[in-house]
Amino acid sequence: MARFLLTLGVVVMFVLEGTVMQVFSPGTGGLSWMIVPRFALVCCIFISMYLGRREGLYYGIAFGFLQDVLFGQLIGIYTMSMMVASYFAGMIVLLFQRGFGMVFITSFLILFGHEWLLYSLFRLFSAAPFDVQWILTHQILPSVLFNLAFGLLVYFPIKNVCNKILAKKEMHMQ
Predict the structure, then answer these.
(1) Does 75 reside within a domain?
(2) Which of 54, 75, 85, 135 counts the most CB atoms within 10 A of its CB?
């Protein structure tokens, strides 16, 4: 049941980032910077940190593919970038303990790397006409900070559900 709730929660976050959050985007208010919500990616990063890199990889592939099919310009870009981001989040956790500060420093780095990878891939395929400085100051940094603020909201619920899944898994192992 906990795994179902976790997956359902990530699906709800994916739907929210593609529908409701588009209405509240700063670009609609005439501001020059824009925020790209990556709620599903934040959830995938936390899942990868608490349930392991393989589990995060699966979630990253699934929700990256959904992102590609529903919203993407090129098929495979979001699949690869979310998969890589989730996997690296799980790898970093192997090196350090899962403290609150480490989780958010890692999340910042992973989110920044994800946005930078997306910009680089879109620039490679000539789909991003903006220069690096503009993208960095007007899209990447505001998006990363917004998604970190969202991460503060969902950190403890995701951590609790992941701990329930791990406890159930350990109970079945004994």
Answers:
(1) yes
(2) 85
Range of the structural domain that residue 64 is part of: 38-161
Percent of the chain with pLDDT over 70: 94
Q: Which residue has the tokens 């910009």?
A: 119
Structural contact between residues 119 and 97, judged by C-beta atoms closer than 8 angstroms: no
- C-alpha to C-alpha distance for 110 and 117, rounded to whole angstroms: 10
pLDDT in tens, 68-106: 999 888 889 999 999 999 999 999 988 988 889 999 999
Side chain identity, residue 166: L
In-domain check, residue 23: no
Q: Is 15 within the bounds of a domain?
A: no
Give the mean model confidence (pLDDT) for residues 115-127: 86
In a domain, 32, yes or no: no
pLDDT per residue over 27-56, tens digit each?
A: 655 667 888 999 999 999 999 999 999 999
Per DSSP, helices labelled H in 19-173 are 20-23, 39-51, 53-71, 77-95, 100-124, 132-135, 141-173
If one counts the domains in the chain, the total is 1
